[in-house]
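Exercise 7. Given the encoded structure of a 209-residue chain, write a plausible sequence.
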């Protein structure tokens, strides 16, 4: 199979396409044929190794001292190619979208993931490309809106609304009938209003608290 790897930590120029053996799933894993993957801000931060000091040492040992020791990529959509002998919730041919978490590996034609990872059926009305954007922003946005127990007619403020999680939370909250105020930088106002924002606060000019 082909996969995109990093020759070292750095800018986009460190990425190279290489050939690797096709992975084989373990007893509790699924083998996924990847049809679409995203390039997230988190992927770019790992590639450059712009990591908060608190996590620097742990991630440097985990990901590789001189370069990432695996293909990057945290979100994907595709289909199940094979399942381990202990896996019962998936079968060959299932169309899914998934998060690879810190296992990474979505920048490849195939990846093996534990069956317990966030792996969900592909919505019937979505393409692989659309569904690949769901695992981080979509699932977390839904989680936080549900935790807030948002109801129709209520007002909701989303701080950092222009990010992956915020943009999904905005759309989900609007679908639930909420009035949404978004907080972010001025450059994102037009995009957020297009997605349904009722009010917008530029945090560089106004203290929303």
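Solution.
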């Amino acid at each position: 199979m082909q996969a995109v790897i990093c020759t070292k930590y750095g800018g986009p120029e460190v990425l190279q396409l290489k050939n690797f053996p096709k992975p084989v799933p373990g007893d509790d894993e699924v083998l996924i044929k990847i049809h679409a993957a995203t390039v997230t801000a988190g992927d770019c931060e790992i590639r450059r190794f712009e990591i908060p000091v608190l996590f620097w040492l742990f991630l440097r040992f985990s990901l590789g001292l001189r370069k990432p020791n695996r293909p990057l990529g945290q979100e994907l959509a595709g289909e199940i190619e094979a399942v381990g002998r202990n896996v019962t919730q998936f079968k060959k041919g299932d169309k899914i979208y998934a998060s690879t978490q810190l296992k990474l590996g979505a920048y490849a034609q195939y990846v093996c993931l534990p069956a317990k990872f966030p792996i969900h059926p592909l919505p019937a009305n979505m393409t692989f490309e659309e569904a690949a954007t769901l695992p981080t922003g979509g699932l977390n946005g839904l989680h936080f809106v549900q935790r807030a127990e948002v109801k129709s007619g209520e007002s909701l403020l989303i701080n950092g609304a222009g990010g992956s999680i915020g943009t999904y939370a905005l759309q989900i909250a609007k679908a639930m009938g909420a009035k949404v105020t978004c907080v972010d930088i001025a450059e994102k106002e037009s995009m957020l209003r297009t997605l349904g924002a009722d009010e917008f606060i530029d945090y560089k000019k106004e203290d929303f608290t």
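Remark. The first strand starts at residue 2 and ends at 6. Students should compare their own answers with the one above.
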